[in-house]
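From: lab user (bench 3)
To: helpdesk
Subject: output format question, protein + pyridoxal-5'-phosphate

Hello, I'm new to running complex predictions and I'm not sure whether the block I got back is the full result or only part of it. Here's what I submitted:
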Amino acid sequence: MKRQTELIGAGRHPDQHHGAVNVPPYRTSTVIREKAEEMVHRRGSPFDEVMYGRIGTPTTFAFEEAMAVLENTDRAAALSSGMAACAGAILAVVKQGDHLLVQDSVYRPVRRLCDEFLTRMGIETSYFAPGIGADIEGLIRSNTRLIYLEAPGSQTFEIPDIPAIVEVAKAKGIYTAADNTWSTGYFYRPADHGVDFTVNAATKYIVGHSDAMLGVVACREDLFYEMKTVSAMFLGNCAGSEEMYLGLRGLRTLAVRLDQHSRNALAVAEWLSAHPAIDRVLYPALPDHPQHDLWKRDFRGASGLMSIVLKPVDEAAAFAFADGLHHFGLGASFGGYESLVLPFDPTAYRTVEPWSGPGPAIRLHIGLEDPEDLIEDLDAGLSKLPAA
Ligand SMILES: *Cc1c(COP(=O)(O)O)cnc(C)c1O
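Helpdesk reply: Thanks, we reran it on our side. This is the complete output you should expect:
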């Protein structure tokens, strides 16, 4: 089956829901049983039967089943946000005294989790250059437990060589996790390259309309049990019924939306590349992107998120450019239908590979507007920059 077709049917069970096309949002905490014996002497996995709202409802099971189809894994665990998914994958396997290897261009709150929280539990993190490939072997210690990747880094867009890193990790018995939010399983499937945990901020393209917080970790059956036990049982993390309903609804149109984001983004990226005010465009689908060949080898497409690096101008000029755009909302996040702009400063957090400008960096999410309107808007703003 093609991915578009899979996404239409995944997790839907009309026969179990009075024929309703969509699995409804089950708003449930308590589940009433017929017999006391069933309550006290339960058998089987609690993650496969409706037992209690936090552990899983028919909405949870439908969303998790559909996400496992999207990411081509045995199972998927729904969580309350993308960040809960990042943390959930890490916490499923780490213990006191462990060491983590994390990509230098990782989503910033993950750095903070590692540096400010996991340190409290005696878990140490070191960072690796996104382009490290098989040389990651030199950074592995006897207590390295997990290698955490993001493909591409969601501000600076380096693509790590995941197959090369996974090969090293597997040989050493180390787990791997990859944040797949930029692609979703529609454009890239880390599990097909042997990654143990595929992390998604479903808040972004999967929900797709900027109206819910939702996260997912997709993995093998044995790791799923660990994931759910730690996240849902011990840490009390569960996704809301309405949010999972919106996640399921988003999945049905994910293919058409991502295909359109991709077309729009490529048109805008190509236009930006030729603009005299811009030093470079960071978008893996452009042939001059440093890891374009890796992207072409491993990915089926590119989504709507990219960054630009301006020619040298002061920060105030970059802020004025961002403030002046009409079609781009100034905002964090991405993956909704609308375009967004976000100035950022990689020099503030990169520790392995220092970032060099030369000018300010700005992230753009290319939405579903007509790209001609977006280009006109960007053109008007860029023409006011001194470098133009
Ligand atoms: C947004 C994002 C997250 C966190 O998702 P939330 O739903 O906002 O918690 C994690 N990773 C990446 C790459 C993201 O873009």
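A quick orientation on your result: The first strand starts at residue 75 and ends at 79. Let us know if anything else is unclear.
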